Amino acid sequence: MNAVQQADQALLIIIGVSAVLLLAITAVMVGFVVRYRRSRHPVPADIRGNWKLEVMWTLIPTVIALAMFAVGWKSYVGLRTAPEGALEFEVLAQQFSWIFVYPNKAEGVNELVVPHGQAIKLKITSLDVVHGLFLPAFRIKVDAVAGLDTHAWFMADRLGEFDIQCTEYCGTGHSAMLGKLRIVPEAEYQAWIDSHAK
Question: CB-hemisphere CA count at 13 Å for 166?
């Protein structure tokens, strides 16, 4: 399972568990309101000191929270840990464009061309204000901060063209800070970087 599938699976599991908990808690609450209403129980029961109940309502939520954390953590680690041999690109954010520096020092502006079937590692920084690199198709959202190198990676496992957006308000031209990720066959990628080599 790749990192994108792990992120999607983690989201579905967390939403599913949350939905089940919402329904269960609502059902129990309605049941208690009906069963223990004042007309049936004018003198309320005192359950203080019931250690079994206290252990149960502490342990069950803790186990559920830790299980959801484990699923989310596994997804996070998968998105943050690039495999060995990943092809590395430098991403420089500036008002209001993306500059992509290729392994052979070729540069592209607002267009990242990568070879199909490769793991791609992005080393991300900003030349001015805070920006946010967002590749929705690959579940990547990483801030670009001046003086700080961050990174992300994805598997270029499908041919096509995908959106790149800035998710941090970076000035009046923020909405125009768009780019394209193009995943192309190896030969086309090689021709592209050869034609843009410095």
Answer: 30
